[in-house]
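[job 0412] stage=complex_fold ligand=adenosine-5'-diphosphate status=START
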Amino acid sequence: MAISQLQIHNIRNLRQVSLHQFSNINIFFGANGSGKTSILEAIHLLGMARSFRSGNTRTLVTHGETQCTVYGVSTTDSKPGGIPLAIQRSLNGDVLIKVGGQVVRTTAELVEYLPVQLLDATSFELLSGPPGARRQFLNWGVFHVEQRFFPVWQRFQRCIKQRNKVLRHGKLGDAELAVWTRELALAGEEIHQYRLMYFEALAPLFREIMRGLAPSLAGLELRYRRGWDKSLDYNEALRASSQVDREQGYTHAGPQRADIKVSIDGFSAADTLSRGQQKLVVCALKLAQGQLMTEHQRRSCTYLVDDLPSELDALHCRLVCDVLAEMGSQVFITCVARADLANMWPEGAKTQVFHVEHGQISKVAG
Ligand SMILES: Nc1ncnc2c1ncn2[C@@H]1O[C@H](COP(=O)(O)OP(=O)(O)O)[C@@H](O)[C@H]1O
Ligand SMILES: [Mg+2]
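[job 0412] stage=complex_fold status=DONE, emitting structure tokens
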């Protein structure tokens, strides 16, 4: 899977950008404020219909304009001609998503055409931040390898909302509560099974990548937590917590509480590792996801890597670049000076360099 064309209109300082002839590794260099992160933002928008920097369209759209558009063509081995994708976001809140020229209603219908992975300055929060980010990470992976996941996920969301509503309204709704509890138990158990299967495939890939990136962190361990007592099935867990659920008016146990615990020699990795080391762990997690996706689906994801050299020393930068190049995924990566990333790639890697200057992008020869 690769982007073969990209047109950006009114995203931050990128008023009108048209790019094609991408390579596997696409390096964007330029001074601070030139528009590098905005390019990654535009590609993220193309794949996910939203920015990674801000949920607020007002900051994304070029000041003084009312809407931004990104258009791109995503090619795959089976569709070498590519599938055109277009996203438009307006200040009034409207979002228009087109896949293959047809309007689609939901982001879920878009994301399979251009799965994107982001590695940027905020990525280490995957390790140190609240569990929600790690659940999202897990869901992203499961979504892309297991088609049955998304409908169950939707069903689960519906059930838990209804169940919590009944819980808030007290004793009167006992029969209704039983119905939603039964439905919730089924959906929750299934979500857990998909996540567990995914996690068990991911963990060894992660370990392998980590061994290459930082052999000194061999004591690193990943553990998946399902969100309830593992000696119980979900139905039993719901029954066990029904008293507290009633008292507090919401569902305590379940996949909505799942997490991935990362530890080193028995201690929390987030509390122990340096920021640089945490960054490496997050890189390894996201690289492992990409590898797993390629193995399972024979599809690859697109990596958006912002300012790697400012986060990692040269040696580790090179090691991450090695894994990226080896995977064969398309990469869009930024740096300040051309030299920062020019010599990071293994021999034979297909690279293309672009210079970014005041929102204008030019291809650099050689
Ligand atoms: N909504 C906006 N409209 C116009 N310009 C913006 C907007 N938001 C940010 N900018 C400007 O866009 C430029 C590009 O930002 P960014 O892509 O983060 O730069 P880089 O990553 O190259 O340092 C910055 O100079 C910033 O001030
Ligand atoms: Mg930037």
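The domain at 119-298 is CATH 1.20.1050.90 (Glutathione S-transferase Yfyf (Class Pi); Chain A, domain 2).
[job 0412] exit 0
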